[in-house]
Amino acid sequence: MGRILVVDDEAGVRSMLEVVLRRDGHDVRTASDGTEAVEVLAADPKIELVLSDLRMQKMDGLALLAHIRAKHPDVFVIIMTAFAEWDTAVRAMQLGAYNFLRKPFDNTAARTLITRALGARDHYLAARAAGESAAAVHLVGSSKAIHAVQALIEQVSTTDSTVLVFGESGTGKELVARAVHYASLRADGPMVRINSGALTPSLLESELFGHVKGSFTGAIEDRPGLFALADGGTLFLDEVGELAIETQVKLLRVLETGEFTPVGGREVRVANVRVVAATNRDLKAMVKAGTFREDLYYRLAVIPISLPALRERPEDIPLLAGHLLSRHAVKLRRGVAGFAPDALETMQTYSWPGNVRELDNRIQRGVALTTSGQVSAAALFSDIESPGTLRRETGRQVRSGLETMIQKRQAISLEKEVESFERALVEAALKATNDNLTEASALLGISFRQIRYKVRQLGLR
Questions:
Q1: Which of 109, 111, 97 is nearest to 28 (CA)?
Q2: Span 312-381: which CATH code?
Q3: Among residues 77, 127, 309, 400, which one has the fewest Cβ atoms lying within 10 Å of its Cβ?
């Protein structure tokens, strides 16, 4: 049991929490505002957890949080907040609060979160005493953007809030999710991954929540879902923008209560899981369009992390390329000695529509085609005539020809022209990836579900 300080300017809330927590065996102190809480913390160095309201006179919850992080870094903080104060609560998570409770809250939910917070604090202190590094996964790069991402991951390492990673396909969102997991207090727990866009809604729900025997054709036994398998750890939910509305409702329930029901079952299960989600879509625009729930968006985006496209950080390309070259040279048993000057120059001027994933694929290709010496630009880009200019010139030529026809008042079929150009791009992506839909979708900047639909629509398979 722990020693807990409850801070709230409402006497009724303080009394209620004090009674509930003492019943669980906790040693409880109370304070009516942030100023009084500072005095209690100074007088009692054995306090382990602070449960603080956000809006208070004299010193509010954010100011108290900042004081605790600076003067009592081993004390964990849970913020109590109303829905109208959501933006401020998110700010508290970014400043290092462990988690939050939304008022009015259920006593069971509060007790569960407090137990998790005390356990997480014990894990944090044990890991620090053992000299374990907080960040076990480091992002390769020297740009300001990558340093900012790494710093944010380390800053929120002691929080337990959901994380939403934004970025184009191939930018390394899964690597960021792994970094978040291994820097967190759940590093010893499992990390489980699923691509939301690769499955139909019914199959996805079965994968996430599990199913019971006989719930559908082929369900010959009970099967635990990924939330059950990730208990005590992290669930990485990739392509979260592809979730069907009905699945969004069920995900929201898990995020708010930790509860879920297996497909075909009646028994409510509980999972202690941190969700890290990722998307290459504009979720705010989807919220406005009514295709993504606003409440789910805010639940997921407590800690937003934006990953820049590779073309936006060309200074990182030499480091990334060298890292990938070393890995593929060992894997393919090639005695390569680095990159030729023309290869480095071309890599830094190429637009990299597939981002780091495309860089990885091209370097693997270059190493495979180089038995010794340096990897040349030809080995990397032999399938592209002019890597730096081909894409732009081709687009200009097509556009110019159509514009000329229109200026001469010659009718065109916009639908057919768009379909023809789309077909050419999809065919090129499939050819470049040997018909691998996952890699082709990354090159085109669309989801797996979208390219699967396009391939069928265009009759390419």
A1: 111
A2: 1.10.8.60
A3: 400
Which candidate, 283, 304, 279, places its Cα nearest to that of 294?
283
DSSP 3-state of 274: strand
The C-alpha atoms of residue 276 and residue 137 are separated, in whole angstroms, by 15
Q: Please state which CATH class domain 394-457 belongs to.
A: mainly alpha
Which of 86, 107, 234 minimizes the C-alpha distance to 159? 234
Residue with tokens 């969004």: 248
pLDDT digits (tens, 9 = 90+) for 338-390: 899 989 888 988 888 889 999 999 999 999 998 888 999 989 988 776 665 44
Tokens 């934004």 correspond to what residue?
166
Q: How confident is the model at residue 405 (pLDDT cuts 50, 70, 90)?
A: low
Strand, helix or coil for residue 372: strand
Say which amino acid occupies 89.
A
Q: Where in the chain is the domain with CATH 3.40.50.2300?
A: 3-129
Share the mean pLDDT of the chain.
85
- pTM comes to 0.69
Distance CA 358, CA 347 (A): 11
Residue entry with tokens 């978040």: 180
